[in-house]
Amino acid sequence: MTNSPALLLTIVQSILPILVTLGFGYFAAYRKDFDAQQAGVLTRLVMLYALPLELLVSILSTPRGQVLAAGPVAALILLAMVGGYGLIFAILRGLLKRRLGEAALIAMTITGPSVPFIGIPVLGQIFGPASSVPISIASLAMNLVQLPITLILMGHDRGSNHRVGNDSEARNDFRELFGHLIHSCREPVVWVPMMALVLVSAGAFLPQFLKGSLQLLGRTTGGAALFASGVVLFTRQVKFSPLVGVIVSVRNVVIPGIIYALARLWHLPLPALQESVLTMAIPSASINVILAMRYHVLEREIASVLFFGTLSSIFTMAFFIWLTGA
């Protein structure tokens, strides 16, 4: 290929900053400059302010026609994240007889890409402002579907609620689900991109003098989030195991491979194929480590997935960048 050096340079420029920033976070924790609690403060800054501002600016900077034409991308991402979650959970519970909480956490770990942390620096560099659309779709799928369901199932497995009778249990389940959904909708990372999508669909745009003001904090999203993830990784003793290897392989290779095959089968336009495949090629989200620590379920394994999945993503994402021609 005549453009092989340029392609290699693009891949390195897109993915290497992830590992470097994670490494700085890991080194900072090793030097005891930051601990897990302080990393949680950085994560809170990202999720409440930096990421919503980044998504707001990016979406309102995306042409209206591009947003309205995002249906195929949304369909593939939702199929992978919501449909894949249900399928993997059913396999883990029905065939492999995993505990309820373990099955839910593994399903979310496999089907939930780290779009807020890794998607911003990687997809943003490849697709520019257009990357905000798949990032927003994946963020909404995680916060409105995957996270509430996982919290409920892990709460059940923990035995935090004692229920009597099927009718009472069903009512409590519904109230719990509804409560998690309401809580999720109040999070800025959920309602801000939804508002921005509505505004840009109606023809609104962001004045130039406001764009720079909002981006000043928004641009810290990728770096701060990855740095915090590096700190968290140091606090857990990661170890490779067959379970970790399977989860990383399915997350980083199998799921984006299936999305690529479906996109080719449905003859989707090249931009839609690239955006959906590379969004689902992003490694597992660090929120899973937080859930594992909160409920004391597979803590070491999920932290190991984050470490080895992110480390191997420099090769797996490079492959899918090459495969899709992004």
From TrEMBL:
It is found in: Membrane. Keywords: Cell membrane, Membrane, Receptor, Transmembrane, Transmembrane helix, Transport. It is a multi-pass membrane protein. InterPro entries: Mem_transp_PIN-like (IPR004776). Pfam families: Mem_trans. The chain crosses the membrane at residues 6-29, 41-61, 67-92, 104-127, 133-153, 189-210, 216-235, 242-263, 275-293, 305-323. GO terms for biological process: transmembrane transport. The keyword Nucleus does not apply. It comes from the Bacteria. GO terms for cellular component: membrane. This is Permease. It comes from Gluconobacter albidus.
